[in-house]
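Record format v2
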Amino acid sequence: MKFLHTSDWHLGRQFHNVSLLEDQKDVLRQMMEYISENPVDALIIAGDIYDRSVPPTAAIELMNKTVNYICGELKTPIILIPGNHDGAKRLGFGAEQMRDSGLHIISTFEEMMSPVVIETKQAGKVAFYGMPYNDPELVRYHFSEPVTTHDQAHQFLASKLTSQFEPGHKNVLLSHCYMDGAIESDSERPLSIGGSDRVSHEHFKAFDYVALGHLHQPQKKGEDYIRYSGSLMKYSFSEQHQKKGMTLVELDSNGFNSATHIDLTAPHQMRIIEDELDNILTMGKTDANSHDYLLVRLTDKHAILDPMEKLRKVYPNVLHIEKPGMLIGIEQTLGKARLARGEIDMFNDFFLEAQQTQLSKEQSETISNVIKELTQEHKE
Amino acid sequence: MKFLHTSDWHLGRQFHNVSLLEDQKDVLRQMMEYISENPVDALIIAGDIYDRSVPPTAAIELMNKTVNYICGELKTPIILIPGNHDGAKRLGFGAEQMRDSGLHIISTFEEMMSPVVIETKQAGKVAFYGMPYNDPELVRYHFSEPVTTHDQAHQFLASKLTSQFEPGHKNVLLSHCYMDGAIESDSERPLSIGGSDRVSHEHFKAFDYVALGHLHQPQKKGEDYIRYSGSLMKYSFSEQHQKKGMTLVELDSNGFNSATHIDLTAPHQMRIIEDELDNILTMGKTDANSHDYLLVRLTDKHAILDPMEKLRKVYPNVLHIEKPGMLIGIEQTLGKARLARGEIDMFNDFFLEAQQTQLSKEQSETISNVIKELTQEHKE
């Protein structure tokens, strides 16, 4: 039997004040096409369906259309859990009413105890257990168990599930957590501070497959069958070289058989370009992917008047500019960048570019005095 | 066949900064008990399920539990439309997936065209058409029809529905609108300004029953079978004498048979008490309903120090105090209240109450000068 493992859709996410909804719509279209052409027994979403507990209406509409097509038209069941970005109770409304239609939203610990069982020739009965995103406080309160860390909470919940495994069933777990030792990206929201959010993969070894969500880079942890599918698309520039998409999982009569990455490609990729302005402007003219979302690192050593306006003429979706050429390293202790050039030099560059001529001696003295005055005021 | 017509639940509503959720929970408990003891073929909610388009989580949970019990345990279908307070798209998520379980959320014009058909021995096939709350702009945009008023919009939508009536079917309409000539209350949010929100009942005469929502007072309009059930409970003090609850509707082979009001009573009633403070304090000591939500109108002619504190000792849920005894009428043009007594008289009252003695001549002069100074400053 085959199912698709996905996670971290983050529908409705904004990136540098740009809505990613059109990109998300396109990626979901690719997903629907894939399932239409390559039928699977289930689609899994291991948390963070939405980017916020109160998602924008347009994100809800997109999710609704996707669900209507996959469950309604393709008759493919969807099994999902809320992640740390989702509002579990908001997402869970009507879960009981939706179940028979093939949409399984597992948002409470009660629902966690009743797996979704799918029967196939190849793997017999496969029980999908959804562990909704949780923290130690929630588990301590709900079960009156003295757990104080994410690790203990997940160990406790996993043992509750494994103790009720049915003989002969294959068992799949959905969980939204941070596996100890796994690799994080820049676009995840920390679950807690200082490493206390880490969970050992050992607790999950009894399952035939563990479909993880939270970390945005596809990866396995500890075992071949304990995996993050990674996010639907890139959500930070530092993910520029990560593969994004879905994990196609195959189970057979022995349990886990294989996991294969299936690419999904957002129309706008997120990437970083580092060069001098003139080189970037030249390159942009022939760049087939000039509509990508860009972080531009200008290596020029002189000040440039309104570089964003210039860049956007060839790369319309430059979202952020950094100027490493203008910095002498980074002051590590303070995390502050110090300007390599003085204010007067900077103003000279600006004046040259704006007026196409150098400052006269008189102008130079005047601006020098103004800057001194301002600097003095600032210090006072 | 019998069904219950309700509307304007407004789950999650606040009243003078007090959450009404516990009252709503109790009223819904009474509703569930009623249905459990007196089975009906459907429960209708004619809009304003929630008080806001983004309802608080606790309101969603209460709705979820209510739906689980009525649809899940009692197997009674629920048919509902969004009102002007609801977010139609937010409320409509998963509607397609819920339908088979008996929860029918009709939140789009497409869904409006497919009635929920319930068949009974007494009345044959009954088609329930839900007209989601709409305004002329929405209808004009969606259907490219040149409607400019609520009346035209509803006339157009009603004619679309009546034109597809099936022969032999009984037809019920759910609509959330303001019937021309009907009585409004203080707790409805206007649909538009200046009377352009009124809809003629004539457009709806072809239906066998019209289950209306929006106006909070139970009433019929034009025909016995065109009715507002009124809100679930009182939502303003001026509704103190209104009956609140549900309308039990009976249809038979001839169509409309009867409509009966079924009382639902919130644990805290909303009411107005008007008297002098001392009388109210005496009455409160033996008032069996001293926990009601109260608007107190003090008729005392002198200033009283902290009347709220005194009142709440006997009536803990006084939510608002008015002091008509302290006012000389209302300046009609400005809508402003003018104090009957001067500042010095007021201070005398205050001092007497706080210190149990009159102002000395010296004190009286001092305060008089202070007040003069302040009044002068204020004028400048």
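The two ends of chain A are 72 Å apart (CA to CA).
Chain A is about 30% helix and 25% strand.
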